[in-house]
């Protein structure tokens, strides 16, 4: 009772004090922009928004191309491929990347005011300023590129347009109603930001004094490590910014856009500059083919830029494994894709070159078995038969689970994952990959060939050199007589495009490559089925139905309604 009275008295005293306005309202502990100069880590928190929304290999946009069919009827890429793409329904839209652009502009506004102090030591403070500003500029360029890649296009008059390029932070009540730049002006703005980022960033984040750029000569090594040490190795670096510049320049140079030798030169030279730092074609990672199959591979020499390696999971395997091993078989590679793999000696898979339609997987490029679950293959803890007698793995036996093409996806999946019938799982770790060295090698090959043909040297590397190294790594029988027979720019172009299709398959490239090359989007998806006695080609598993102007995708309808200056692409 004594304690109860004591507590009541305490409550009454506090109630009286509050009634007499003795206490002021407390700080709600909310972050205000005025606090940022006092707490530098809060400013960096704004910058970190730029690392959200990065495009990794897990989009599975191939279902909207000739490489795959998604067997889920509600899948956005499936619906797009079947003819539903429009200005109000576009699963490949990237207009929301502007949100990250404005975060970067807000950070740059803050940092350029010069009020933030990261350290009382001037050299450390300058290192922080340069690095973080470089990151923001590079990320601003990248997110603008995402928007451009998805929404550049020709207007009703045939003019090739880019996108609005925002270099200032705009308050909510500010003017967002600005016109699109020309395509080339947008490219130039992106490259300008990347060039500034390259100048400010270290080539690599390192703790080794021997690997520090010459521009940091005279900086104390301990000070350098505090700011640009290996602890930042997953963040945007000068090396990554150069690779992005090569990617942007190749996109700009492509036939659907500027078809320009100058940008091919930029792409080739920048790519070669980076690749020569790893030894040129000798630096092609021997583990690059299956970079996703182990922690050591995903942390290895193939990785130019990746995210954090996550914990054990079965998310992607559950989506992609065949139903007999407790997956939902979502992505089905097409027979079109399977026929892109050459014979084991590197010649195209045609009957003239030894292809047997009744032994379709014999004597083929070893990459085929690595990337596609073929009829009769062992995978996921079981034997997968997609033909007659295959049970629930048989083609079309269970709607939205069983394959529609005769194939299941193998690439990007951890081979040791198990999804057990009792609900237990044995997961493996995965990582988002943003840029692989193999892509950079293929950028160099494509650009170098367009500049001067198969043997044109760019800083000591030719398209032939690159393709020879890639095919040798793949296990193509040596000597590669088919490659040796390629002597013209046109023939090498087709070979490079096919190697890119295989090497970068199911990493989100094919959807954009077909558009930048101006290739048909309406190639019908084919399948292949074993009926118990023989294999039968299924010539029309899924008919593509893109509009003739779908090379250039629409600006979101909601944006063109809100902003009168925002001109729509032709046809939408």
Automatic annotation (TrEMBL):
Print the keywords alphabetically. Cell outer membrane, Membrane, Signal
Which positions fall inside the SusD-like N-terminal domain? 68-206
Q: Name one GO cellular component term.
A: cell outer membrane
Q: Which Pfam families match?
A: SusD-like_3, SusD_RagB
Q: What is its main location?
A: membrane
- Extract the InterPro entries matched here: SusD-like_N, SusD_RagB_dom, TPR-like_helical_dom_sf
Ranges for domain RagB/SusD come to 301-572
Q: Which domain of life is it from?
A: Bacteria
Compartments annotated for it: namely: Cell outer membrane
SUPFAM superfamilies attached here?
A: TPR-like
- Keyword DNA-binding tagged: no
* Family of this protein: Belongs to the SusD family.
Q: What is the designated name of this protein?
A: RagB/SusD family nutrient uptake outer membrane protein
